[in-house]
## 1
Amino acid sequence: MTNRLAQAQSLYLRKHAENPIDWWPWCDEALATAKTENKPIFVSIGYSSCHWCTVMEGEAFSDLAVAEYLNANFLPIKVDREERPDIDSIYMQALQMMSGQGGWPLNVFLSPEDLVPFYAGTYFPLEPRYNRPGFLQVLQALRRYYDTEKEDLRQRKAVIAENLLKSAILQGETTQQAQTQELLQRGWETSTGIITPNQYGNSFPMIPYAELALQGTRYQFESRYDGQQVCLQRGLDLALGGIYDHVAGGFHRYTVDPTWTVPHFEKMLYDNGQIVEYLANLWSAGIQESAFARAVSGTVQWLQREMTAPTGYFYAAQDADSFTHPGEREPEEGAFYVWSYAELEQLLTPTELTELQQQFTVTPNGNFEGKNVLQRRNAGELSTNLEVALDKLFAVRYGSLPDALPTFPPARDNQEAKTTDWPGRIPAVTDTKMIVAWNSLMISGLARAAAAFQLPEYWEIGAKAAEFIYSHQFVEGRFHRLNYEGQAAVLAQSEDYALFIKALLDLHQTQNPQNSLWLERAIALQTEFNEFLWSVELGGYFNAASDASQDLIVRERSYADNATPSANGVAIANLVRLSLLTDDLHYLDLAEQGLKAFNSIMQQAPQACPSLFTALDWYHNCTLIRSTTEQINSLLPKYLPTVALSVVSNLPADSVGLVCQGLKCLPAAGSLEQLLQQVQQSQNRV
């Protein structure tokens, strides 16, 4: 028997459709019912490829005793954070306030009359273990507290609500204003330090930090860090590490160690888009390591083969877990990707196995639960023999050699994964929904890679996805965030607007800036973004639109970078780019207001907001190159981080182009060498 979630479009919600819990989706009816019945609300937030979300679904949420108590004493609501990042952001902040840490699944308990949280946690085991109470114990204690400790409950909620409001309006101590150069250096040095290799903890891509670190190397700040070496090392860790799937392309979410060896195996579209853009920027900056080109090429092949819908958009994610045979009840983490030594001995010739062991971390004992995750030992090109050996492993996984498999159908849920007659291993489940923000990150990565590697086919793949979004995501004149099998859903949030506008500008800039179509679309979307999400009183953009925020206890403005760049950081940089490309100074005014709105957080917590520092760099060092199509095309492969390009036909006589700094232009350049010297000076004028 199924519950309400059986009719949900979200794969994550449908995964809970057979739980005995009487789940509701987040909706007005659920919130009203909780208030009428005076039941505290239990909100559980996660996403389809989240490993511990899957564990909790199979344990506590499938237990009859838990379900009976939860249904009687709470109103349970399930939320897909990928559908509603605005809800997730508010309650994740509450969890961090209460516990000092966050994560998913996010389980939070709210008062029905005001939706203010009074308790929150992450994974709760069914029975007490891992120094955590059993979930039924938690439920019983919280219901008892809700019924008997009314005054303490009131005071506790008041503190949480006040802190959430302060955080939303950035109310706090204002430090003395730092000079722009000092502030930029502080932001650059902080981000460079964050991506400097260390000897402890998990290893995340952290691309917003890496991009700022790379962008700031041109300043040649006096620092304890060698910025170029740090950025190179981050690229090598990504392209050589176990976080990259050396057999079939694509990057996993992160590694569970500081050595970039054993990944948490889900593959998220947003990571892959950002990493492709970063590796392309490294290449453009002159760090032309062949492993970078191989990783980008392999990731684009994976994207086309497994993550692209027939209509051109990109799927959201692939799970970490998969089944080793159809009879299994629960999937195993990494099963699709790892290799036993015995398998490798059987599949490869002795010569191939020897070379594989010389170039990859392959041993009889393995590095992950007795099996091997492939991690490269050295940079450089792989030999033809080794590529042949990796193709053999590909064939075992997929049932065919790479050249004979342009597309591979997704397993859309566990049942489909187990019942389909796959020619190779049973693949991990793919979440096939389209998320505008994540598609946009991939489009930007493809556009930048097309320019860096001079491969226009990358641009075409990104342009096709952008065409789908522009053709399908407007409903009754409003931009929407998600698409399920051709059906748009959920009004767009700030990250969707900001990242898609950036993607449109990147397509415009990296193909032929003379073609105004992509720029016109960016301008039109920016107008809607300003109308529904700009904060006139505070500056910056709210997470959710003015007519889609009634169910939120506060309206937040995203400024912190997480796995993806902050909406406001990207949006402010977009405004500067638009001002350069349109000569409309209103965009520059908005950018200035946005930077002022977040100035205090940039001074107090530079570790939180690298994308705002990237925007600050754009604001103070924005440079426009006006030149011919031929000259512009020669500039496209270069790394020019705060430059916009514009094709013009009426240049001064005997000149190759004009370099303009914000509101003034330098003397016309008579040669490409002189133009590049002017650009270098213009990008370093703070």
## 2
Amino acid sequence: MELRGLNRHQSYAYQGYAMPDSIQRLDAQLLKKELGCNAVRTSHCPPSPAFLDACDELGILVFTEMPGWQHLGDDTWKAQALQNCREMVCQYRNHPSIFLWGVRVSGSADDEAFYKRTHETVHRLDPTRPTAGARGFHKSQLLEDVYAYNDYSYRGRGSGCEPRSAVTPDLRRGYLISEFGGQQFPAKAFDDEPHRLAQALRYAAVLNDSIAQQGVAGSFGWCMTDYNTHREFGSGDRVSYHGVMDLFRNPKLSAAVYASQKTPRAPSDIVLEVSSGMALGDLPGGIPVACWVFTNAESVRLYRDNDFVAEFSPDRRGRFAALPHPPIEIQDFVGSLLEKYEGLDRAAAPQVAAILNEMRRDAMELSPLSRARMLSLRLSAQELLRMYYKYIGVLGSPTSVYRFEAVWHGRAVKTVIREPVQSVRLECTVHNPILTDGPTWDCAAVSLRAIDQNGNLLPYCSEAVQLSVEGPVEILGPSVVPLRGGMAGTYLATTGEAGRAVLHCKMEGALDTEAVLTIRCREESRA
């Protein structure tokens, strides 16, 4: 199986790297269970031992590296960097999850004498595992066992990654893509629908093409989460929005690309994420855009106002054919409705439906072939436009209810309903509601989401959420947090006492909600 992973920055809102073990372990659980990754690169930053412990337990392969980024210093600097390599191996080599040692400063220039020393030093301390080094240029000196390449070549069309033969100087050695993705196309959770979809499809394209290309061991997307950064690298607010999740580990649409590659073993494993909110007023000119479904189901059924439209299966010969579970593009929004409601016969109905779907896809433009079909069907432009307004819709026309069903083993196991918002609910999820204080403080990770009556995220809800707590916890960060992309989060820290704690959440326009936590004290650990 190919490596399918993400880069991880050990960075958290409000706290930076200073998070206790339970929060570090939670990242490993998200990578494996929510995102479906089988590997992670620790992104040239020393990982928490607790994170590696969790990777050991969950079976996540880890590519860890010597610290540093781009810069190579003088002899004194290099002596310290070499010592960092020694300490990296001695600290982590008893973790079975480690499968690759990074012995180059990520993104740095070639330095034959120095990198010979780092490679040899690591192999003396651990001769059982290969070495690699992430770089961003072709035909670099390959002193390690594996050529790791930061491939940011994809621009939204063409091949998702460069040919291995054009990059590595030695095709006999291992090769993997150590970074790709977010840096080339950052996306905020509150960006518009086409932008969020474009980021997701870019991740899918590179994942697909790295699998399809022979000799590529796998790829690591950049990156798991958004992260705080210096002022020259972010979006002007010292945040890099490169992640498939936000800073609080709330998933963006691109997270569904990874999550949908999991092999389902039960109905609860099925992923069903629909890219479109089906709201024409959100789109330029009120013109519908592409609608994709990211799923690991066998097929997806579409209903419009309770009328069955069509069933769609993954295209095993299309753009994403190499993925275990290719995303499904919904291209038919008419189906057999013309037979039912317009009285068209079985020969004419599919032809007219094809014209309507083409008009939807091409912003109401008609190809010469469709114009010829209209003549043969004796279909006037006025009649065609009437049916377009009725079955596809334009800005201001009556809204429809769309239902998407994920089919697994012949039955619908998950449903997404898209319709106008009728009510707003604030959803509060505590990812680790049982905390243990001792020998250090512990912390709970909380996700907040504004959702509609069908459980759909409301990406343009930016209300403020007021937080308060009862019991032996305290809020890390502000007590009033704004939703961004309909999502936010907070952290709750233990205070040294055991008991029951309650987080209260209030938001204008929604009912109050709360979450309960249990805090235990490990007194013997404090002695």
